[in-house]
Predict the structure.
Amino acid sequence: MCVSLSKILGTYGYTVISVQNANKAIDSLQSEPVDLIISDIRMPGMSGLDFLKELHAIKKDVPVIMISGYATVDTVVTAMKYGALNFYEKPIKIPKLLSEIAHIAEAKARHPVLSEKEIITQNPVILEKLRMIEKAAPTDAPVLITGESGTGKELFASALHGKSRRSGGPFVKINCASIPESLLENELFGHEKGAYTDAHCAYRGKFEQAEGGTIFLDEIAEMSIPMQAKLLRVLQEKEFERLGSDHSVKADVRIIAATNKDVAMMAKSGTFRQDLFYRLSVIHLDIPPLRERRDDIMLLTNHFLFLFNTQYGKTVAGLSTEVKEIFLLHSWLGNIRELKNCIERAVIFCEGSLVTTDDLPSQYKSVETPRQDDLQGIYEAVTREVILEALEKSGGNRQRASELLNITRRTLYNKMQKLGME
Ligand SMILES: Nc1ncnc2c1ncn2[C@@H]1O[C@H](COP(=O)(O)OP(=O)(O)OP(=O)(O)O)[C@@H](O)[C@H]1O
Ligand SMILES: [Mg+2]
């Protein structure tokens, strides 16, 4: 079985490493990265199921297809639980296996990264922000991140921390809106034992917890004016006091603040301290909403399909043409979070290889009528998708792609250049 499968896969252009037992497989995994494992269940030594558990334990995030001549419901369920992507009974239907492997390879090729922390984009505006992050990261300057809900403010903040020299230190997050005003000071600065009636022991606040690292002040616009004054002092003097103490504590902390409110406007109208706004926004990252960067919709979609395929052991390869159109025209008021949730649900519900409208909740079942000022972005995103599809079909051959699109090679070239696809 091992030898003949290796031969067949080899003729389809895959590089195959074959080993005769699970221990050898684990050894070889330490030295060679692989994209897919195909494993039997009954083997000499370690069984296929124990092998799966072991992979899980050593955090090898590789898709696994199990094959067996003796599949019981129990083994199948256990295999799935330990992350097997699929289960094939002997005799194996080779064409089906090959098409599944092709899907996995394709998904992999489109997604060289596997991490949830990765910032995925091809949009020029966001790429510019990423360059800002690179420059800002090594400094200790405060950073203000603004953008609608779900645009990735927290993701950007954690990327900034990760690229800074503080990355070995803690990243401490506090949501200024979810904590009652009376408790926020205590949460941020901590207290001494006996500072108030219930303070039975001393408490290190978030600023002390973040020592040597970064503090992320989320929803900063919700902070009361008196608290803003206290925060300003930390920014100016780099020190603060615990409640009930007159001993100052040095704050070796980088401050990143975020909000979905227009704080610049609030600073002008007096509902946010102007001096604090200026201090916080030494570096200001404003993240545009997804509907203003539609060229990211398909890229993010494929990224999330990959993440959730891995998480749920599915092999959803893409979107139906109808769903593609709906996605490209949708207004995505919840931004990337909305897209991510939508894809997670679709991957769970999808039975075939493409997401269809049946897999989506009702608000995604039909094409939205876009707002007039969105049209340019939509046109560009749709054009890009159509060109990519034609290039894919023609195997990258531009002459053939332009014939498929019924335009001249020159027009195709011009369009690609305009869309930055060169
Ligand atoms: N460019 C991106 N690439 C990949 N994932 C992204 C990207 N932007 C956002 N996400 C994902 O979208 C989700 C929402 O992002 P995040 O929580 O950072 O948004 P937010 O702006 O802080 O939202 P809120 O204002 O509601 O707190 C997260 O799961 C995040 O990982
Ligand atoms: Mg957030």
